Amino acid sequence: MAQEIEIEYKNLLTEKEFNQLLYYLPFPPGGKIQTNYYFETKDFALKNHKSALRIREKNDAWRLTLKEPQKVGLLETHDLLTKQEAEAIIKGQLRFKGEVSQQLKKLNVSFEDLIYYGSLKTVRRETNYEGVLLVLDYSTYNGTADYELELEAATQQTGKRVFDALLEKYNIPERKTPNKIERFFSTL
Which CATH architecture has domain 3-186? Predict the structure, then answer.
């Protein structure tokens, strides 16, 4: 089964803060584009389980991912898709049978009940920094744009230490930061 635990810290940024981090940290000059296609049921069954489902298109690869909360981090279950499978799922013409479908059954969510709600496009820059992965994202969706810092770490202790030090060093206030799917749905 293609699963992993993701431990990450997030902070929304102003455009000025985003540009400051882009300038002072070793991010590549250009970012890579990725697009998330979001799914939910009419009655928001996934949200009620604090879970989320998306297809991500990145580097001509397509991946279906279900995110579920754990005591520490998020459990991510992945299924690789062909472009044709992804497009058919987005159009509601194909019901995928894979690991994600099995996890959805455990949540009592039927793949047939899922609806495509829309997409979010991100220009992403990544760099390794003090033993963690730093990510700067510029995202656009539903006429909205935002800037975000993400930090992915192997442990909570390392992640929190580096995250807090980074915000302090660059005088960036810590902000309550909903994840991308929450921000997307809040603009519908």
Answer: Beta Barrel (2.40)
